[in-house]
Automatic annotation (TrEMBL):
A Pfam family it matches: RmlD_sub_bind
Similarity annotation: Belongs to the dTDP-4-dehydrorhamnose reductase family.
Protein EC: 1.1.1.133
InterPro entries for this protein: dTDP_dehydrorham_reduct, NAD(P)-bd_dom_sf, RmlD-like-bd
Enzyme class: oxidoreductase
Protein task: Catalyzes the reduction of dTDP-6-deoxy-L-lyxo-4-hexulose to yield dTDP-L-rhamnose.
Pathway in which the depicted protein is active: Carbohydrate biosynthesis; dTDP-L-rhamnose biosynthesis
Name of this protein: dTDP-4-dehydrorhamnose reductase
Keywords of the record: NADP, Oxidoreductase
GO molecular function, one term: dTDP-4-dehydrorhamnose reductase activity
Domain RmlD-like substrate binding: 17-301
One GO CC term on file: cytosol
């Protein structure tokens, strides 16, 4: 991770804007990096709607940021699936149309764009298993993906096929925000308390939010272009993660197992990767950052 002495020696960052600063992930990162900017604009959804180009142009014309960090997204996987195939629905308008609008403006005004995406752009199937490196190209096929994952992939393509200067940052199952019910640790803890089963056959690499904050800071400060993955290591499963978490929060809990393979056979299932996970070796080397293991992150977060 970034050395604290190095942080103090770094000058202030250029004027920047965070889209989606009021959301779960955006607010978590904002709380960690806001003191490092002389000018940091964090408009609410009412002040800035990235799906409306005229609104976006007016706001950026007024404040002229040099860096934009985009956390704005429709992230409810189950609700997103209800709009599957709808290109006029809110999921598509935010996850694809909103990115398209940001990209066009960043191209024209030479603004550096940091776009936060997800591991859900990868299928995690037997035919295309993870963990995936930063250079791995997701297959552009909606079949094995959730609608959320597919729209996030189309948003990525808006970015990578553009002439904008950008950084693409992928995350997965974020945790590190103690007061937010959307936090993955809080979700798993609720499952444990209620005696609900956790998938034991699904592989993934959750993201620790302090690691993401360090990454966003580094990329924004030096305006480093490329694709970055921010997750803990090594691969784990929701069951293994939950069992370790319970040692800290509920040592007497009976952790129950289930299988995502069986879930995917049920009616109205939402596609989920089985063999997922993101590799971070190239990101850590490029940014001179070392991410937490998921066990160390749990220990730090729960104490």
């Amino acid at each position: 991770m970034i050395n604290q002495k190095q942080k103090k020696e770094l000058p202030s960052l250029p004027p920047a804007m965070i889209a989606g600063a009021g959301g779960f992930v955006g607010s978590s990162v904002l709380s960690s990096i806001k003191e490092k900017f002389q000018q940091l604009f964090t408009p609410s959804r009412n002040e800035l709607d990235i799906t409306k180009p005229e609104n976006l142009l007016k706001f950026l014309g007024k404040y002229s940021p040099k860096v934009i960090v985009n956390f704005a997204a429709f992230t409810d996987i189950n609700e997103a699936e209800k709009q599957r195939g709808e290109r006029k629905g809110s999921v598509w308008l935010i996850n694809v149309g909103g990115v398209k609008n940001l990209v066009r403006i960043c191209e024209d005004d030479k603004i550096f764009l940091i776009h936060v995406s997800t591991d859900a752009v990868f299928p995690g199937t037997n035919n295309f298993p993870g963990p995936y490196s930063e250079t791995q190209v997701p297959p552009n096929n909606p079949g094995p993906l959730s609608w959320y994952g597919y729209t996030k992939l189309q948003g990525e393509l808006m970015l990578t096929n553009s002439k904008a200067r950008y950084a693409l940052v992928r995350i997965s199952y974020p945790f590190g925000h103690k007061n937010c019910p959307k936090d993955f640790v809080n979700k798993v803890n609720e499952y444990v308390k209620k005696g609900l089963p956790l998938f034991s056959d699904q592989k993934f690499t959750p993201t620790y939010l302090p690691d993401l904050a360090d990454t966003i800071f580094s990329v924004a400060f030096e305006q480093i272009e490329g694709t970055f993955h921010v997750t803990t290591h090594p691969l784990t499963s929701p069951y293994e993660f939950g069992a370790y978490l319970a040692k800290n929060l509920a040592p007497n809990a009976d952790i129950k197992k289930s299988q995502v393979k069986e879930y995917l056979k049920t009616p109205h299932y939402v596609p989920r990767p089985i063999h997922g996970g993101l590799l971070t070796k190239k990101t850590e080397k490029k940014l001179s950052i070392r991410f937490h293991s998921w066990k160390d992150a749990i220990e730090e977060f729960t104490h």
